[in-house]
Amino acid sequence: MTMWIIILIVAILGIIAASWYIINRITKFRFIDYIEDKTIYKNKPRTTGKGADFGLPPKGVKVKEKPKKSWLRRLIAILLLIIVLALLVICFSFVEAVVVLLHAAVIWLICELIVSIFRAFNIDLAHLKVYLAGICAVAFTIIYMIVAYILGSNVYITNYEIDTNKNVEPLRIVQIADSHLGVSMTKDTFRAEVEKIKAQNPDIVLITGDYVDDDSYLDQLEACTKALSTINCKYGVYYSFGNHDKGLTGNNRGYDTEKLVEILKSNNVKVLEDEIVNLDNEYLLIGRADASKRDRQPISQLVSTIDPNTFNSEYSIVMDHQPNDYDNEAAANVDLVLSGHTHGGQFLPINNIGVIIGANDYTYGHKKIDNTDFIVTSGISSWAIRFKTGTKSEIVVIDVK
Fold first, then answer.
1. Residue 61 reports pLDDT greater than 70
2. Gyration radius of the chain's alpha carbons
3. pTM, to two decimals
4. Which residues, listed in sequence order, are joined to residue 367 by a DSSP beta bridge?
5. Residue in 97, 17, 108, 175 with CA at minimum distance from that of residue 387
6. CB-CB contact of 320 with 304 (8 Å)
């Protein structure tokens, strides 16, 4: 809970800082000078220069003093920002509007820094007579967020091949995680993704946590889980808990954990929480409780319950939502660990912050430690944000051979 309070405080401060910065930058656009001239100044000559430094003056040329920003300049900037944010909320959501705002502020700052570098090298752009940094910032933000929306809203297929020296039949695993039903993924979109899963002809389907969220309501849960029941594969569909599935805020979703498990099981989805299933004496499926559960069993304890001969001859697959127990899982000598939780880092360049601060051992993709393969998916969706850069929403297909 402390972490979420810190995140909330940082987010609020970021929103305030980004809004203040963008409002001040909007006042530098030339069209605001035009409005000012037609209203406050009534087309009378100004005693000082225009309100924006549109270009970069040649070296040695003194820039005229800028007039104080009038109340009209500030008002126009505030209204423009409010209108843009309102449109984003209508088209997307409040959270996604905030995401765009923060990205715009960062991109704008980068553009301003680039223009300052031009100035430092005495590159003359004064002839352009435009607020170059602002125009570039707006254009790059639009392009960047369009690409981010495409990567986050569309679900792609990501394939991995894992080799094993154990004498087992080939296995095709389809893994999904972080659907956060009803937050970013609707009933209709989830049904469409289930059809994609079926088209991969899996032997087994594994849901590695955060299937639902605090705002995933009963009708959404029932409809999407019913779609899962239509998957007909050799070993069926298995699910392990993530940190959001049992609810974080006490929001009345219309069901509790017991009801969630009941709905999953009634639709042929097998729930594993610190449990092990033997699949045809060839594969061991180990479903761990989420790391947020304080009394979950250590991986070494789970593995110790398996007959050593069975463990050494059969291929072991661990479902562990949060990728933050790699050393212990590698020491336990399991063969494959599948996780989600990180959303692939969501955005560049902050995508590896979880690893840097020690919250996760890995952010995205395939990694091998000793004899253990680790795969972290970016998720089939994400929490309340349909934008991703540096990664994409995905269904993971793993062929064990």
1. no
2. 27
3. 0.88
4. 374
5. 97
6. no
